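Database export, one record per block. Field names are fixed; values are copied verbatim from the stored entry.
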Amino acid sequence: MVQPSSALPAPIAGATGHAQQIAASHERCRAFGLASEGRPDLHRLAPSALAELQQRNARLYAQALPVMEMLYEQLMHAQSMVLLTDASGCILHALGDPGFLQRADQVALSPGALWAEADKGSNAVGTTLMTEAPTLVHGQEHYLRGLQFLTCSAAPIFDHKGALLGVLDVSGERRSYHPHTLALAGMSARLIEAQWFADRFRHSSRLHFHPSAAALGTLHEGLLALDEDGRVLGANRRALELLGLAPMALRRESLTGLFGQGLGELALVQRHRGELRLAWARDGAPLCAKLSLAQADLGLQRQQAREAWAAEPELPETPPPPGRVSLRQTERQAIASAVQAAAGNLSEAARQLGIGRSTLYRKLKTYHPAP
């Protein structure tokens, strides 16, 4: 459990990057025309407008609420709250210590209020929106003096296209500051993203990957959602980081373009070996992977596998002389042996045979060796 520090902390001591982030935020606030001695804007949406906004973000809230509750339990101290905003910085929902919620409401740190930098000056929500990175704003780092009783840690929440969905924030009385709170907020935001991704692509095939097999199934794994042809439908943040690709670039990719193997090939390899080892086509970096096939794709892959082995009838050939084996029979046996030795990995079998993968596919259709 995270417990508050016993003394008023100096959380940014020696943190050059953090100091630069706050300085840049203050500069933006001056450019917005905000006066540091001014009072925070207390405007909130009307109840009907807030209800409409909450309805538009109902799916985000459904994924976020269990995580928000878990995060608040981890804080384990009074004078704090957890809140969720939309992509503009408008607070959608908040939960926390009743006494602190009342105090926060006095500065409009409550549902319906907009916490963009242009409205509230430097604050964790607004600065996170500007930088799209986890942000701590503590005490006097808040541009407006009326907010300097706060310590706030926030992290962005992204969807499968890399678009910002909202911000998860932990705010409290500044004496409740703990150095681990920002990390907890970041981890919680990733949990929400994982829930969003799983719900969005619950009927799609997914590729889980990471350089370490131990990281598969954790928040550190990369995730790609795939259509039935192996084209990328969406990716989580970790996938973008591991592959070094922008969201738009990745959505134009396919498994074959990324890893040199298609959905059907990977399904066959995993079926025979129980594990996948991938090499990213750009730099050959090794990756451990696991393929989760959608039920529709699972049936499709089985059908494609059958078609690969027996799609067309054999062409008639002249029988060889007694005691001799025909060239076609020899080639057919060589292909069957190579596929078996490669445990169903058709790319590896093609390399062993010294032919292209497309050539191997054509020959499989011609010879249709028995599975």
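Remark 1: Residues 181-200 form the longest helix (20 residues).
Remark 2: Strands lie at 80-86, 91-96, 135-138, 150-158, 164-173, 205-210, 222-226, 232-235, 276-279, 286-292.
End of record.
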